[in-house]
Amino acid sequence: MVLTTSHLIGIVATLVVITGVGIYAGSKVKSAADFSVGGRKAGSGVVAGTIMGTLVGGASTIGTAQLAFQFGLSAWWFCLGAGIACGVLGIGLVRRLHESSVETIPQYLTRTYGNAAGPISSIFSSIGIFFNIIAQLLAFVAILTSMFAIGHLTAACIGVLLVLVYVMFGGLWGTGLVGVVKLLLLYVCAIACGWVAYSMVGGASGLMAKFPSHPWFSLFGRGVDKDLAAGFSLLVGVISTQTYIQAVVSGRNVGEARKGAFISAIFIPPVGIGSILVGLYMKSAFPGIASAEAFPLFVMKFLPPWLAGVILATLLIAVIGTWAGLSLGISTMLTKDIYRKFFRKQASDRETLTVQRLMILAVCVLSVVAAQGSAGSLILGWSFLSMGLRGCTIFFPLLGAMFFPRFVSPIAGVAATLLGPLACLLWYVFYPKGLDPLYPGLVVSLLTLILVSMFTAKTDVAEA
User: Which range of residues forms the domain containing residue 184?
Assistant: First the structure.
């Protein structure tokens, strides 16, 4: 496919609009607090924009179309699980998180389990988030190499530059305000592409004629064990991820934070339907293409050039937005919970902000290095592993600290945040084709928290 002048006009116009919003967002950053939690002044729109701007990215669009190209409806688990997780976040956790006055999950954990829980949870959570950054990088490379005759490394480096521009100067305001604009465009993208694909394949009757019911129209097309783990990994992963906790903490009050979570719960799942329809159509019409390129190639081939340009730019920003938001989450944890606690306790506000931005740069560079040799791998595979590892680290210790602080012990909390993710990673390495690593990781985490708490003292821990 060759980009025409109309394609380029649509791309440039869209990027100019979003860049303008990003510049406005950057003007709001006056301190490290503004950068990381928006100064706790965000309304429900910015809270939802931050959540969806990170969750709805390369995995929910490019990755979902790729998995649908291979397995069909089971590709919906990323968006469906993400929506369920946001609903649970809004119903059960927002008030406690918002009223805690903390900026990071490890800070919350240290209140119950002591200072040792902070760095352990920060490190394993950051590793988990980093896996999802690799997924976004692979999605970005798939889009850019579909548009231009460039190599994977060149495309990855361009992605790093765009991430730095996107988040370096805007922090949470950048990911939140730009996320709102991006999501409006992304819904146009999902509706337009889904409708065109559905029409071209011949509607429901056409789909049924081209594909057998199993696995293509089953939510468990890859197997009940694997697909349930995929959906559950989103539930525990979202609740255990710094980026989404950061979003609700940024709300100006509990009501706005909760409303933002509920908006996300409603609007995330439908995005996946359009991507699934695109993946199924491309499988039926062009079964020999690289599955990761199904969505961008569909856009370039079957939509009017100007609209295709708008959608391609929106997809690029969707991926960059998620990549940037995840990088912001890692940088916040490493800066607040590692740098300021163990290296520079008296660091000034300006120094903290500078270090956080340097952390983002380092994460981006490392992602390019780590992704070399992963071209062609399943984008959602990285995303599910990422969510699962975060959940195995944080989920049960966080629930224990929130709802059962008198029954869990500091030693148990620290052991659970260490052994849960280790079990997940070791299972993934030694049994890659066996039971999903999410299950042993969560079981080890829960049993460790319960059993160790039964035999160790529940001492009071000073607030970190």
Answer: 36-379
- Residue 399 domain-assigned (yes or no): no
106: domain CATH number? Answer: 1.20.1730.10
Return d(Cα 247, Cα 86) in angstroms, integer.
11
Name the token pair of 234.
């989103």
Residue 283: pLDDT band with limits 50, 70, 90: very high
Could you count the other beta carbons within 10 Å of the beta carbon of residue 341? 18
Domain-embedded: residue 28: no
182-226: pLDDT as tens digits: 777 777 788 889 999 999 999 999 999 999 998 999 999 999 989
Instruction: For residue 1, tell me if it sits in a domain.
Output: no
Extract the tokens encoding 316.
């690029």
In whole angstroms, how far apart are CA 211 and each of 198, 274, 286, 341? 14, 17, 14, 56
pLDDT, tens digit (0-9, with 9 covering 90-100), for 30-43: 444 444 444 456 77
Q: Which residues pair with 251 in a beta bridge?
A: 42
> Does 94 fall in a domain?
yes
Tell me how many domains the chain contains: 1
In this prediction, residue 463 carries a pLDDT of: 42
Q: What angle do CA 269, 272, 275 make, to 5 degrees?
A: 165
**pLDDT tens track for 249-258:** 878 888 898 9
Report the 3 state secondary structure along the chain.
CCCCHHHHHHHHHHHHHHHHHHHHHHCCCCCHHHHHHHHHCECHHHHHHHHHHHHCCCHHHHHHHHHHHHHCHHHHHHHHHHHHHHHHHHHHHHHHHHHCCCCCHHHHHHHHHCCCHHHHHHHHHHHHHHHHHHHHHHHHHHHHHHHCCCCHHHHHHHHHHHHHHHHHCCHHHHHHHHHHHHHHHHHHHHHHHHHHHHHHCCHHHHHHHHCCHHHHCCCCCCCHHHHHHHHHHHHHHHHCCHHHHHHHHCECCHHHHHHHHHHHHHHCHHHHHHHHHHHHHHHHHCCCCCHHHHHHHHHHHHCCHHHHHHHHHHHHHHHHHHHHHHHHHHHHHHHHHHHHHHCCCCCCHHHHHHHHHHHHHHHHHHHHHHHCCCCCCCHHHHHHHHHHHHHHHHHHHHHHHHHCCCCCCHHHHHHHHHHHHHHHHHHHHHCCCCCCCHHHHHHHHHHHHHHHHHHCCCCCCCCC
Could you tell me if residue 203 is left (phi over 0), alpha (psi between -120 and 50 degrees) or otherwise beta? left
Is the Cβ–Cβ distance between 90 and 239 less than 8 Å? no
DSSP β-bridge partners for residue 42? 251
